[in-house]
Write a structure and sequence with these properties.
single chain, 416 residues, Alpha-Beta Plaits, 3 domains, 15 helices, flat
Length: 416
């Protein structure tokens, strides 16, 4: 739960902001109607995600509330009834995240959107690639103000090394002119690697040449900024590109994820599973397992389908915990597939630990205890379908042998 400080003398505005923000389960609000209350709140707590403050309060008519929040290093959004261009520019230069006027309901939705973006940014990694230390420090400072996790590199070659070390980096902001490997060569290298196909790339250059802009975009960059840029434009470009990436991911997930368990569905397995066995795109060898919840029909018959659905969701959550680095698919009904490209010994250890966890877990509010059966094919075949068929046949061997066990080639492991 993230805390948001709201400093506003209007009761109506406080209620609107509080309702919109607390409708999001990630947030809770501390409401203050004057500077004195805000000062007490900030002295009492140092973990506010953001402060939303009015410029004109009865005991602080000249923006003292903004100065107070910034002095406590709390990211600050101004929400005011008056628009003044000079004041706005002055406050943005002082470090305010945004200056929003109370014009309509959309203004309050803007506040909510910004607050939620700050939450997401806490786990969002951005790589800044710039050979000028002064320019790099400036860009990193802007990003950290918005709660991003920031990584740095001084040229394209260092950037590729940083991407290898931190494969969850979601955005690269890179200058054009750099030694060893420039920004143009960097974006080409990134787009040639499938692992980074969804990475957001924003190019920078002191040269405002439109040809350079189009060259970057055609090579795979998402956006381009000419230096020097105003920080408000910089933030808008960063946020819009991240939101576009998230929208694409949401659309992709709706097609590829099982809506109940939120693991991959069979469609995704059919379209992408084979690439794991392709030496050019994957690892060339995989361990395929079929995992089935024992006696699941009796759960639906005795407790209803809602309970059965809850059990499957909790079961899938256990799978994602023990096989976080593997491909997990809901194959159909209560049957799941886990495909691993890791070491065989490590996989079987995780599989055994997973089965122990299943047996010791009480599922749903009915506190049901269950077991599962597993068939494994670790031998390399000519294609994935053959491995799936072998794993599936071994699963049914485990079922016929009494359930609650693993069947693999020359191996039968019983549990319980």
């Amino acid at each position: 739960m993230y805390k948001v400080l709201v400093v506003e003398d209007s009761l109506t505005v406080r209620k609107i902001v509080n309702k919109l923000i607390e409708d999001n389960p990630h947030f809770t609000c501390d409401l203050c109607e004057n500077l004195s209350e805000a000062q007490q709140a900030l002295e009492k707590s140092h973990d506010y995600l953001v402060a939303i403050v009015d410029l004109n309060l009865p005991d602080a008519p000249n923006g003292e509330s903004v100065e107070l929040a910034l002095s406590h290093n709390v990211p600050t959004v101004v929400l005011t009834g008056n628009f003044d261009e000079f004041t706005r520019a002055q406050l943005l230069d002082q470090g305010v995240l945004d200056y929003i006027t109370k014009e309509s309901r959309y203004s309050y939705l803007q506040v909510l959107k910004l607050v939620d973006r700050l939450r997401k940014n806490l786990s969002t990694k951005v790589l800044v690639v710039e050979d000028s230390k002064t320019s790099r420090n400036h860009i990193c400072s802007l990003l950290r103000k918005f709660h991003f996790q920031v990584h740095e590199a001084s040229d394209g070659l260092e950037a590729l090394q940083e991407l290898e070390r931190h494969r969850d980096i979601r955005m690269v902001i890179a200058d054009h002119r750099m030694p060893n490997m420039d920004g143009y060569e960097l974006i080409k290298a990134i787009r040639h690697d499938r692992r980074w196909q969804d990475l957001v790339f924003i190019g920078l250059s002191a040269n405002g040449d439109s040809v350079l802009t189009s060259k970057f975009i055609k090579s795979g960059a998402n956006d381009f900024l000419s230096k020097p840029f105003y920080h408000e434009e910089f933030y808008c470009r960063v946020m819009q590109n991240l939101e576009s990436q998230e929208m694409i991911q949401t659309i992709r997930n709706s097609a590829n994820l099982d809506p109940l368990t939120q693991v991959y569905n069979r469609r995704y397995l059919n379209e992408h599973g084979e690439s794991l066995l392709n030496p050019k795109t994957g690892h060339g060898k995989a361990i395929v397992s079929m995992i089935d919840v024992d006696n699941f029909k009796s759960v639906n018959d005795n407790f209803g389908h809602k309970t059965g659905d809850t059990l499957l969701k909790e079961f899938a959550t256990l799978l994602t915990h023990f096989f976080a680095d593997d491909l997990i698919v809901r194959y159909g009904g209560e049957e799941f597939t886990v495909i691993s490209v890791g070491a065989s010994k490590s996989f079987f250890t995780s599989l055994s630990e997973f089965m122990d966890a299943v047996r010791s877990t009480q599922f749903t509010h009915h506190k049901l205890t269950i077991t599962c059966s597993v068939g494994v094919c670790a031998e390399q075949q000519s294609n994935l379908d053959e491995q799936l068929d072998i794993a599936d046949s071994r699963l049914y061997c485990a079922k016929r042998a009494g359930k609650n066990q693993i069947f693999a080639r020359d191996m039968q492991l019983k549990h319980g």
